[in-house]
What we know:
This protein is of the alpha+beta class. It has helices at 17-42, 110-116, 139-144, 149-166, 170-174, 178-196, 217-286, 288-303; strands spanning 44-47, 52-57, 60-65, 68-71, 78-83, 89-93, 96-99, 104-107, 117-119, 125-136, 200-211, 310-312, 333-335. It has four domains: 19-83, no CATH class; 89-211, Tetrahydropterin Synthase, Chain A, CATH 3.30.479; 215-292; 307-335, no CATH class. α4 packs across α6 (178-196) and α7 crosses α8 (288-303). It starts with 16 loop residues before the first helix and ends with a strand.
Amino acid sequence: MARSSPPPIRGTGIPALDEILQYSRSLVTIAIVVAIGFGVFSSFYTVQPEEEAVVKRFGKVIAINPPGLHFKIPFGIDRVSLVPTARVLKEEFGFRTANTGGRTQYVKNREHRGESLMLTGDLKVIDVEWVVQFQIADASNFLHKSRNPFQTIRDNSEAVMRRIVGNSLGSDVLTEKRVQVATDARLELQEILNSFELGVQINTIELQDVTPPEMVKPAFNEVNQAEQERERLINEAEKRRNQVIPRAEGEALQIIAEAEAYRAERVNRARGEGGRFTAILSEYQNAPDITRQRLYLEMIDNVLPNAGPIYIMEDGVTPPLPLLNLGSNSNALPIGGAK
Protein backbone atom coordinates (compact mmCIF):
# COMPACT_ATOMS: atom_id res chain seq x y z
CA MET A 1 0.00 0.00 0.00
CA ALA A 2 1.54 3.27 -1.13
CA ARG A 3 2.26 6.06 1.36
CA SER A 4 0.69 9.45 0.58
CA SER A 5 2.77 12.69 0.90
CA PRO A 6 1.93 14.88 3.88
CA PRO A 7 0.05 18.10 3.17
CA PRO A 8 1.92 21.48 3.34
CA ILE A 9 2.24 23.00 6.77
CA ARG A 10 -0.20 25.83 7.35
CA GLY A 11 -1.40 27.72 10.39
CA THR A 12 1.52 26.71 12.58
CA GLY A 13 3.07 30.32 12.77
CA ILE A 14 6.06 29.41 10.57
CA PRO A 15 5.86 31.14 7.11
CA ALA A 16 6.48 29.20 4.02
CA LEU A 17 9.63 29.60 1.95
CA ASP A 18 7.95 31.61 -0.81
CA GLU A 19 6.45 34.00 1.72
CA ILE A 20 9.89 34.51 3.27
CA LEU A 21 11.38 35.27 -0.14
CA GLN A 22 8.54 37.64 -0.99
CA TYR A 23 8.96 39.45 2.35
CA SER A 24 12.72 39.74 1.82
CA ARG A 25 12.19 41.18 -1.64
CA SER A 26 9.81 43.75 -0.19
CA LEU A 27 12.32 44.76 2.45
CA VAL A 28 15.09 45.09 -0.13
CA THR A 29 12.83 47.15 -2.38
CA ILE A 30 11.88 49.45 0.49
CA ALA A 31 15.52 49.82 1.50
CA ILE A 32 16.52 50.64 -2.07
CA VAL A 33 13.73 53.22 -2.39
CA VAL A 34 14.66 54.78 0.95
CA ALA A 35 18.33 54.85 -0.03
CA ILE A 36 17.51 56.45 -3.37
CA GLY A 37 15.24 59.01 -1.72
CA PHE A 38 17.82 59.82 0.92
CA GLY A 39 20.52 60.11 -1.75
CA VAL A 40 18.39 62.42 -3.87
CA PHE A 41 17.40 64.50 -0.83
CA SER A 42 20.99 64.79 0.44
CA SER A 43 22.50 65.48 -2.97
CA PHE A 44 21.43 69.13 -2.93
CA TYR A 45 22.24 71.84 -0.44
CA THR A 46 21.65 75.58 -0.20
CA VAL A 47 24.29 78.18 0.64
CA GLN A 48 22.89 81.34 2.26
CA PRO A 49 23.83 84.82 0.92
CA GLU A 50 26.33 85.50 3.71
CA GLU A 51 28.02 82.09 3.52
CA GLU A 52 30.41 80.03 1.42
CA ALA A 53 30.43 76.23 1.21
CA VAL A 54 33.67 74.28 1.53
CA VAL A 55 33.18 70.91 -0.20
CA LYS A 56 35.49 68.04 0.81
CA ARG A 57 35.63 64.64 -0.88
CA PHE A 58 37.25 61.98 1.26
CA GLY A 59 38.77 64.76 3.36
CA LYS A 60 40.24 66.77 0.45
CA VAL A 61 38.87 70.20 -0.45
CA ILE A 62 37.59 70.07 -4.02
CA ALA A 63 35.52 73.26 -4.24
CA ILE A 64 34.42 76.42 -2.46
CA ASN A 65 30.93 77.27 -3.67
CA PRO A 66 29.22 80.68 -3.51
CA PRO A 67 25.65 81.28 -2.28
CA GLY A 68 22.92 79.35 -4.09
CA LEU A 69 21.71 75.78 -4.72
CA HIS A 70 24.47 73.19 -5.35
CA PHE A 71 24.89 69.45 -5.90
CA LYS A 72 27.13 67.01 -4.03
CA ILE A 73 27.71 63.27 -4.00
CA PRO A 74 25.65 61.79 -1.15
CA PHE A 75 26.30 59.03 1.36
CA GLY A 76 29.16 60.87 3.02
CA ILE A 77 31.38 60.95 -0.03
CA ASP A 78 31.14 64.76 -0.29
CA ARG A 79 30.94 66.71 2.96
CA VAL A 80 29.96 70.37 3.07
CA SER A 81 30.97 72.94 5.71
CA LEU A 82 29.18 76.30 5.64
CA VAL A 83 31.36 79.27 6.61
CA PRO A 84 29.87 82.80 7.19
CA THR A 85 32.40 84.75 5.11
CA ALA A 86 30.20 87.84 4.57
CA ARG A 87 29.21 88.21 8.21
CA VAL A 88 31.08 90.54 10.57
CA LEU A 89 32.05 88.50 13.60
CA LYS A 90 33.30 89.83 16.90
CA GLU A 91 35.15 88.77 20.01
CA GLU A 92 34.60 90.71 23.25
CA PHE A 93 37.20 91.12 25.98
CA GLY A 94 36.44 92.23 29.53
CA PHE A 95 32.68 91.96 29.11
CA ARG A 96 29.98 90.05 27.24
CA THR A 97 26.89 91.21 25.40
CA ALA A 98 23.75 89.65 26.83
CA ASN A 99 20.70 89.85 24.56
CA THR A 100 17.67 89.21 26.75
CA GLY A 101 15.17 89.89 23.97
CA GLY A 102 14.87 93.56 24.82
CA ARG A 103 17.54 96.12 25.39
CA THR A 104 21.12 94.93 24.93
CA GLN A 105 22.98 94.59 28.23
CA TYR A 106 26.65 94.27 29.00
CA VAL A 107 27.65 91.66 31.56
CA LYS A 108 30.95 91.71 33.40
CA ASN A 109 32.03 89.25 36.07
CA ARG A 110 35.26 88.21 37.74
CA GLU A 111 36.30 85.98 34.85
CA HIS A 112 35.83 88.81 32.37
CA ARG A 113 37.75 91.20 34.61
CA GLY A 114 40.74 88.88 34.41
CA GLU A 115 40.84 89.49 30.65
CA SER A 116 40.83 93.26 30.93
CA LEU A 117 43.07 94.11 33.91
CA MET A 118 46.49 95.11 32.57
CA LEU A 119 49.73 96.60 33.83
CA THR A 120 50.97 99.71 32.04
CA GLY A 121 54.52 100.82 31.41
CA ASP A 122 54.52 103.10 34.48
CA LEU A 123 53.36 100.20 36.70
CA LYS A 124 49.73 101.24 36.90
CA VAL A 125 46.81 98.83 36.72
CA ILE A 126 44.00 99.79 34.35
CA ASP A 127 40.87 98.04 33.11
CA VAL A 128 40.79 97.85 29.31
CA GLU A 129 37.68 96.55 27.55
CA TRP A 130 37.81 96.09 23.78
CA VAL A 131 36.08 94.42 20.85
CA VAL A 132 37.70 92.73 17.84
CA GLN A 133 35.55 92.78 14.69
CA PHE A 134 36.68 90.51 11.85
CA GLN A 135 35.56 88.65 8.74
CA ILE A 136 36.56 85.29 7.30
CA ALA A 137 38.54 86.00 4.12
CA ASP A 138 39.53 82.42 3.25
CA ALA A 139 37.00 79.76 4.25
CA SER A 140 39.31 76.80 3.60
CA ASN A 141 42.19 78.20 5.68
CA PHE A 142 39.81 79.18 8.46
CA LEU A 143 38.59 75.59 8.73
CA HIS A 144 41.88 73.75 8.38
CA LYS A 145 44.81 75.94 9.50
CA SER A 146 43.79 76.04 13.16
CA ARG A 147 42.01 73.58 15.42
CA ASN A 148 40.06 76.39 17.10
CA PRO A 149 40.34 79.61 15.07
CA PHE A 150 38.14 81.66 17.41
CA GLN A 151 40.28 80.78 20.43
CA THR A 152 43.40 81.54 18.37
CA ILE A 153 42.04 85.02 17.63
CA ARG A 154 41.21 85.58 21.31
CA ASP A 155 44.59 84.44 22.61
CA ASN A 156 46.60 86.51 20.13
CA SER A 157 44.40 89.59 20.56
CA GLU A 158 44.85 89.51 24.32
CA ALA A 159 48.62 89.02 23.98
CA VAL A 160 48.94 91.92 21.54
CA MET A 161 46.82 94.27 23.65
CA ARG A 162 48.76 93.46 26.83
CA ARG A 163 52.07 94.09 25.08
CA ILE A 164 50.99 97.47 23.65
CA VAL A 165 49.43 98.65 26.92
CA GLY A 166 52.49 97.42 28.82
CA ASN A 167 54.70 99.63 26.66
CA SER A 168 52.53 102.74 27.18
CA LEU A 169 51.88 105.12 30.03
CA GLY A 170 48.65 104.65 31.93
CA SER A 171 47.63 108.29 31.54
CA ASP A 172 48.17 108.07 27.77
CA VAL A 173 46.02 104.97 27.38
CA LEU A 174 43.29 106.57 29.49
CA THR A 175 43.25 109.81 27.50
CA GLU A 176 44.71 110.75 24.13
CA LYS A 177 46.38 107.50 22.96
CA ARG A 178 43.31 105.27 22.90
CA VAL A 179 42.92 105.51 19.13
CA GLN A 180 46.63 104.86 18.58
CA VAL A 181 46.55 101.80 20.86
CA ALA A 182 43.58 100.36 18.94
CA THR A 183 45.24 101.02 15.57
CA ASP A 184 48.56 99.47 16.59
CA ALA A 185 46.76 96.43 18.03
CA ARG A 186 44.80 95.88 14.81
CA LEU A 187 47.90 96.05 12.60
CA GLU A 188 49.96 93.75 14.82
CA LEU A 189 47.15 91.20 15.26
CA GLN A 190 46.57 91.11 11.50
CA GLU A 191 50.26 90.46 10.91
CA ILE A 192 50.28 87.56 13.39
CA LEU A 193 47.14 85.95 11.94
CA ASN A 194 48.55 86.28 8.43
CA SER A 195 51.64 84.39 9.54
CA PHE A 196 49.31 81.60 10.76
CA GLU A 197 47.45 81.64 7.39
CA LEU A 198 44.23 81.73 9.36
CA GLY A 199 42.22 83.36 6.57
CA VAL A 200 40.87 86.17 8.75
CA GLN A 201 40.63 89.90 8.00
CA ILE A 202 40.60 92.16 11.07
CA ASN A 203 38.25 95.07 10.40
CA THR A 204 38.52 97.09 13.60
CA ILE A 205 39.63 96.92 17.20
CA GLU A 206 37.65 99.32 19.37
CA LEU A 207 38.43 100.19 22.96
CA GLN A 208 35.00 100.17 24.57
CA ASP A 209 35.96 101.44 28.02
CA VAL A 210 39.32 102.21 29.59
CA THR A 211 39.03 102.93 33.29
CA PRO A 212 41.13 102.57 36.42
CA PRO A 213 40.23 99.91 38.99
CA GLU A 214 37.32 100.68 41.29
CA MET A 215 39.51 101.37 44.33
CA VAL A 216 41.46 104.19 42.67
CA LYS A 217 38.76 105.45 40.30
CA PRO A 218 37.99 108.65 42.31
CA ALA A 219 41.63 109.78 42.13
CA PHE A 220 41.76 109.04 38.42
CA ASN A 221 38.54 110.96 37.86
CA GLU A 222 40.04 114.01 39.56
CA VAL A 223 43.12 113.75 37.37
CA ASN A 224 40.94 113.47 34.26
CA GLN A 225 38.94 116.51 35.30
CA ALA A 226 42.15 118.47 35.78
CA GLU A 227 43.36 117.35 32.34
CA GLN A 228 40.08 118.39 30.76
CA GLU A 229 40.22 121.76 32.52
CA ARG A 230 43.75 122.25 31.26
CA GLU A 231 42.71 121.40 27.72
CA ARG A 232 39.77 123.78 27.99
CA LEU A 233 42.01 126.63 29.13
CA ILE A 234 44.50 125.89 26.37
CA ASN A 235 41.71 125.90 23.80
CA GLU A 236 40.36 129.20 25.10
CA ALA A 237 43.85 130.71 24.98
CA GLU A 238 44.32 129.45 21.43
CA LYS A 239 40.94 130.90 20.49
CA ARG A 240 41.89 134.26 22.01
CA ARG A 241 45.26 134.19 20.26
CA ASN A 242 43.62 133.40 16.95
CA GLN A 243 41.33 136.36 17.43
CA VAL A 244 43.87 138.94 18.66
CA ILE A 245 46.87 138.18 16.44
CA PRO A 246 45.05 138.39 13.09
CA ARG A 247 43.34 141.59 14.24
CA ALA A 248 46.66 143.14 15.29
CA GLU A 249 48.27 142.04 12.05
CA GLY A 250 45.39 143.59 10.09
CA GLU A 251 45.68 146.85 12.02
CA ALA A 252 49.45 146.90 11.49
CA LEU A 253 48.99 146.38 7.77
CA GLN A 254 46.39 149.15 7.73
CA ILE A 255 48.74 151.57 9.52
CA ILE A 256 51.57 150.67 7.15
CA ALA A 257 49.30 151.20 4.16
CA GLU A 258 48.15 154.58 5.50
CA ALA A 259 51.76 155.59 6.16
CA GLU A 260 52.75 154.56 2.66
CA ALA A 261 49.84 156.56 1.24
CA TYR A 262 50.75 159.61 3.35
CA ARG A 263 54.39 159.33 2.30
CA ALA A 264 53.40 159.12 -1.35
CA GLU A 265 51.07 162.09 -0.96
CA ARG A 266 53.73 164.24 0.73
CA VAL A 267 56.36 163.29 -1.81
CA ASN A 268 54.07 164.00 -4.74
CA ARG A 269 52.96 167.29 -3.19
CA ALA A 270 56.56 168.34 -2.56
CA ARG A 271 57.47 167.42 -6.11
CA GLY A 272 54.48 169.41 -7.37
CA GLU A 273 55.42 172.44 -5.26
CA GLY A 274 59.00 172.17 -6.41
CA GLY A 275 57.91 171.99 -10.05
CA ARG A 276 55.57 174.95 -9.52
CA PHE A 277 58.34 177.00 -7.89
CA THR A 278 60.69 176.14 -10.76
CA ALA A 279 58.08 177.24 -13.29
CA ILE A 280 57.46 180.52 -11.43
CA LEU A 281 61.20 181.14 -11.23
CA SER A 282 61.52 180.61 -14.95
CA GLU A 283 58.69 183.07 -15.61
CA TYR A 284 60.15 185.55 -13.12
CA GLN A 285 63.49 185.47 -14.90
CA ASN A 286 61.74 186.18 -18.19
CA ALA A 287 59.41 188.97 -16.90
CA PRO A 288 60.20 189.97 -13.32
CA ASP A 289 57.82 192.96 -13.02
CA ILE A 290 54.80 191.17 -14.38
CA THR A 291 55.55 188.05 -12.36
CA ARG A 292 56.05 190.06 -9.18
CA GLN A 293 52.72 191.87 -9.69
CA ARG A 294 50.93 188.59 -10.39
CA LEU A 295 52.37 186.97 -7.27
CA TYR A 296 51.27 189.97 -5.19
CA LEU A 297 47.73 189.80 -6.55
CA GLU A 298 47.51 186.09 -5.94
CA MET A 299 48.70 186.58 -2.38
CA ILE A 300 46.11 189.34 -1.77
CA ASP A 301 43.42 187.16 -3.30
CA ASN A 302 44.21 184.39 -0.83
CA VAL A 303 44.64 186.62 2.26
CA LEU A 304 41.82 189.17 2.05
CA PRO A 305 38.89 186.67 2.18
CA ASN A 306 40.13 185.60 5.62
CA ALA A 307 40.81 189.12 6.96
CA GLY A 308 37.18 190.02 7.95
CA PRO A 309 35.52 193.49 7.51
CA ILE A 310 37.81 196.28 6.26
CA TYR A 311 37.09 200.01 6.95
CA ILE A 312 38.70 202.66 4.74
CA MET A 313 38.80 206.21 6.22
CA GLU A 314 39.99 209.48 4.72
CA ASP A 315 42.11 212.12 6.46
CA GLY A 316 40.18 214.88 8.20
CA VAL A 317 36.96 212.88 8.45
CA THR A 318 35.56 211.91 11.83
CA PRO A 319 36.38 208.27 12.28
CA PRO A 320 33.35 206.02 12.66
CA LEU A 321 34.84 204.05 15.53
CA PRO A 322 32.39 205.35 18.21
CA LEU A 323 29.46 204.36 16.04
CA LEU A 324 30.55 200.85 15.08
CA ASN A 325 30.00 197.77 17.15
CA LEU A 326 33.53 196.54 16.79
CA GLY A 327 33.09 193.96 19.55
CA SER A 328 31.27 191.66 17.15
CA ASN A 329 34.36 191.34 14.99
CA SER A 330 37.72 192.01 16.54
CA ASN A 331 39.45 191.27 13.25
CA ALA A 332 38.27 194.53 11.57
CA LEU A 333 41.24 196.43 10.16
CA PRO A 334 41.04 200.23 9.78
CA ILE A 335 42.90 201.37 6.71
CA GLY A 336 44.04 204.84 5.75
CA GLY A 337 43.08 206.67 9.00
CA ALA A 338 43.27 206.71 12.77
CA LYS A 339 42.97 203.43 14.49
